[in-house]
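pipeline/complex-builder :: batch 7 item 3
reading input block
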Amino acid sequence: MAGKGGVGKTTVTATLAATAAGAGLSVLIVEVEGKSGLAACFGQAPLGYEETELAPGVRGRTLTPDEALVDYLEAHGMRRISKRLARSGALDIVSSAVPGMKDILVLGKVKSLEQNRAADVILIDAPAAGHAITFLMSPRGLGDAVRVGPISRQSTEVMEMLADPERCQVILVTVPEETPVNELVDTAFQLEDRIGVQLGPAVVNACYPDPGVPESVDDVQQLADELGVFVSPREAGDLVAAAGFRRERFVLQQQQADRLAARLPLPQVRLPFLFTAELGPPEIEVLAATFAAQVDALPESSRGRVTVP
Amino acid sequence: MSEGVSFDDIVRDRHIVVCCGTGGVGKTTVAAVFAAEGARRGRNAVVVTIDPAKRLANTLGLDALSNTPREIDRQRWDPAGTAPPGGRLSALMLDTKSTFDHLVATYAADDDQTQRILSNRFYRNVSTALSGTQEYMAMEKLYELHEQGGYDLIVVDTPPTRHALDFLDAPRRLTRLLDNRIFRLLMMPTRAYLRFASAAVQRFLRTVSRVVGTEVVDDVVAFFRAFEGMEEGFRNRATSVLALLAEPSSSFVVVSSPRRDAVEEAAFFAERLAESDIPVEGLIVNRVHPAFGDEGVEGLRARAEALAGKHLDAAPATGDGAASARRLAELYTNLADFRQVAERERHHMAGVKARAGRAAVAYVPFLSRDVYDFDALAEVGGHVFSRHARVD
């Protein structure tokens, strides 16, 4: 899951997890960039390195480069070395020498989770957009700097995973606004051209619902009279202003979502903006229901890629 | 302590303004707003942008990375011709690698040393992809513009890092790398390090070689040898950059949105800067929704429900009355929704204002279009600077 900061990537990750769990799949969410509100979406305490259950069928954990390195070395019979590397703070030095080193360690661990069938679906809450490209490019960049040894093998295997549409795809998240849409399009082309990764449907988050036909203050008074209820002129003004604001935003959002569809030939899933307080389990359920309904409506070819583990 | 500053003070008096905050809050826009306002007030202003959105870049006359400032045609930012004659506006888009190359050339003893470093693979990695390099170079560019002189006001955007304080630490990062004991040993003549290094270092090097390969170690050795004699210059430079940022003529402005996560990051950021003795002078909350009156959310929702009930009552009898009741209920629900957003945002904003101390605070409303031309930049400025009297 990738997208510019502030577009609701974490919310969409939680939504997709709930959708997949609702379809009977087991889900593991992996957080790779420190704190996010992910666990809060499920009403749980922040995630740690140990897996925890977030909801029925949904587990979550974090993944840091240091922990991934220790895991990796131990799994490859280098337990003693892993201790020494961890103690000396060598990872920091080595990763200064080899950029992308930390990213490859994390992606390598993801690959081993995938190969061990840790869950039917593994969702990675990736770093924000620009960094997502760097993150996913890391095996390629690393192949250039490190040509032998276990890290080099790791890069090759991660690249294979990223390029295989049956195993991995990237879901890009945006909001229906000019700059985020432009960035999503740029990111999409870069990911396809430079990494060759399969893209899932684009998720357009926080869309206002259709506001219906416009009203004036007079129209509102007429409605009130007809129903025999009292609406003060001031309140009528607020009602009309709020409706007008939503309509204006709605039209602009439609234009941006349509522009996205025109520029990027990917199926789109549009999620509604939720006005209710901070997001928690009930809100995620609402979003997941919308998500599932829209995925069902997608053409078979693209739908299959969304839900098949 | 005296009264806190206002945004007018900042744009009129400060030499350096650093705009920081998390991604997606309009930091680059705010940086452009400050520089344009400075120019309109007669200052020679320059804005250093990092990865601006395309249309904003076009407005600023930046169609590609340009490591030297380009002046923007006066006609574009001051069409009415009312700005004092001294006012000038320039912009540049940070090119991380070129800035780093330039820095190397500055401190190298000769062209040969420059070339040896620039062609080293480890250097190329560090200069393009080492995390924090972009932050480092943004600060370096700021210092370069300051040293070069001529600009009254230098406004800098910061990279949209999750760890928003990285840029403060960035200049120290390279010197820390240079100071590392192991790397000092690596600077011994080729391969000799393996003979002279202590057993512990040998073990370490073998470990590193086993994990990443010997080529990497060789590259690093070559880099440090090429770098010989330049560390002092780099170290001094890093110290000067930090000293410049801590001067009273430098100002930090935090940009946020009225969402819970952004507001929390902003408050955290302000507190951390204060710990480094760098007070945040301004806080700008961007994209605030309108309030739509002052009625309580619960009352409005109750009204909507009552009307929806009316619609059920009316349904069997008259279809028209049912439609009217449903429509009016929708309007109430919609107003309740936006009132709820407004109340939540105001709650978050009050929280961040309380934690912002003496910083000037400005709220910029949600504008119905994206901000990318000078008219829109001026509109945002109208909510920040007192020309239109809307600060706080």
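note: Residues 319-355 of chain B form the longest helix (37 residues).
queue -> next item
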